[in-house]
Specification:
210 residues; alpha+beta; 6-stranded mixed sheet; 4-stranded antiparallel sheet
């Protein structure tokens, strides 16, 4: 069963248009930044360094505008989108189509500072939860399974947290199961200890009578 897709905004984006003489125009910046706390989504989320390593090998990521599959800016397999991890995060560089639509809708607003953020769509194969018994738990994304898209976005839409919250519920259930199993083990060990003590007392009592 495939993990459901999640979308996240990168509030620390460094989105810019790059123009070099004799070269096609590019859009570049960080789609994700490591070890930075997210906004309060009912939980706080961080992305661990190296989290995209597996996804970068397994994905054919697209660059979209506002996650709109009708506005494709680039694609890895076409060589028009480059993604790489460094110590800071996930860096993207895309060569968008040279069309008036892209110039007006994407490049010009980025140049003007009207669009400054990016979002990315992904699935998670490994995460870790902490402080699950507190008001604001903390989630660390350890491994991204697939990276669907990176997208400059007009509005930092509030992310859908239902997938992450299901992961939190599962973690709570697992911890509760572990606690029950531990309690059962301790009870069994207590009973066995009581039986051993009783046997020892009976043995000592028989030896004394003898």
């Amino acid at each position: 069963m495939k993990e459901p897709k999640e979308n996240r905004i990168n509030p620390q984006a460094e989105l810019r248009v790059i123009r070099s003489e004799g070269e096609p125009v590019k859009v570049a910046g960080y789609a994700a930044v490591f070890n930075r706390d997210s906004e309060d989504m009912g939980f706080i989320e961080r992305i661990a360094p190296g989290a995209f390593k597996k996804a970068l090998k397994n994905s054919d990521t697209r660059a979209l505008f506002n996650h709109d599959s009708n506005i494709v800016l680039g694609r890895e397999s076409a060589g028009t989108l480059t993604l790489k991890e460094d110590e800071k995060g996930l860096f993207m560089e895309v060569t968008p189509p040279d069309t008036q639509l892209v110039r007006d809708m994407v490049l010009s607003p980025i140049d003007r500072g009207d669009i400054t953020q990016q979002s990315f769509g992904f699935t998670v194969s490994q995460d870790k939860w902490e402080d699950v018994d507190k008001d604001i738990p903390k989630r660390t994304i350890l491994e991204v399974r697939e990276l669907f898209d990176v997208s400059p976005v007009t509005f930092p839409a509030y992310p859908d947290t239902s997938v992450a919250l299901r992961s939190l519920d599962k973690t709570k259930e697992d911890l509760a199961t572990e606690a029950r199993n531990l309690e059962a083990t301790l009870q069994d060990e207590k009973k066995n200890l009581e039986i051993d003590i009783l046997k020892l007392e009976r043995t000592n009592g028989g030896m004394k009578r003898g």
